[in-house]
Write a structure and sequence with these properties.
Blueprint lengths: L1 H6 L7 E2 H8 L3 H13 L3 E4 L5 E4 L9 E6 L5 H16 L3 E4 L10 H11 L2 E6 L1 H5 L1 H17 L3 E6 L29 H22 L2
Parallel strand pairs: 4-5, 4-6, 6-7
Antiparallel strand pairs: 1-3, 2-3
């Protein structure tokens, strides 16, 4: 997607299969496999003509991907990384662009950067565990700001229950949580199935917000 975006200068214009394949330096089998996958995900469109061509499915002027801020305890780093893998298709479809504190660059003031990203986020994901609940920064700062934005209607806050814990009396308990039935991801027999359920729920929210222009 990055190479196609560069070759098309971010526009919805067709690029020849041969030119794109050469730019990627991929063999035919790999190119065709990835192309089919992206077509199925509605990330690219296919043109006709000699040799064929492909282009970005997102038209110029289409709203940019939604910014998704991930609030989590560093104890849950592994769970956060697993979630990011399952959010990959949503990023490729240009539905969301995830941000978390590991993206803070050297020399940046981390508290100001986090505050700024929280203020800019369209969706705020709360990765809920007992460590999130017990974290002064997560619970008293990030969560408070997230709920302020929720109450103001300027962001969609979505709790994602990572591990069983006493969260039903928290300020976010009134919000619909993921996965299905707010069953903690750790309690699912198949963790990939749980994460797929979360990703699907987020995809529906992203499409709804993009369609509404919010």
């Amino acid at each position: 997607m990055d190479k196609l975006t560069a070759l098309s200068e971010g526009q919805q214009k067709l690029i020849g299969n041969g030119a794109l394949r050469d730019a990627l330096d991929w063999d035919d089998a790999r190119y065709e496999r990835i192309k089919r996958q992206l077509v199925e995900e509605n990330a690219i469109i296919v043109g006709r003509g000699r040799g064929g061509s492909v282009g970005l499915a997102t038209a110029p002027g289409t709203k940019a991907a939604l910014s998704a801020f991930i609030a989590y305890s560093h104890v849950d780093e592994e769970a956060k990384n697993a979630l990011l893998k399952h959010l990959g298709p949503l990023t490729r479809l240009r539905l969301i662009d995830s941000w978390h504190d590991r993206k803070i660059k050297a020399g940046e003031e981390w508290d100001k950067t986090i505050s700024s990203k929280l203020d800019q986020a369209d969706i705020i994901l709360l990765l809920v565990s007992i460590d999130f609940i017990n974290s002064e920064y997560c619970y008293d700062i990030e969560l408070e700001k997230a709920m302020e934005r929720h109450e103001a209607g300027t962001a969609r806050v979505i709790p994602i229950i990572l591990r069983p814990c006493l969260w039903n009396h928290a300020s976010f308990a009134k919000l619909q949580a993921l996965p299905k039935d707010a069953k903690a991801i750790a309690a699912w027999a198949d963790k990939d199935e749980a994460l797929e359920n979360v990703a699907d729920g987020l995809m529906q929210v992203a499409k709804e917000l993009l369609a509404s222009g919010k």
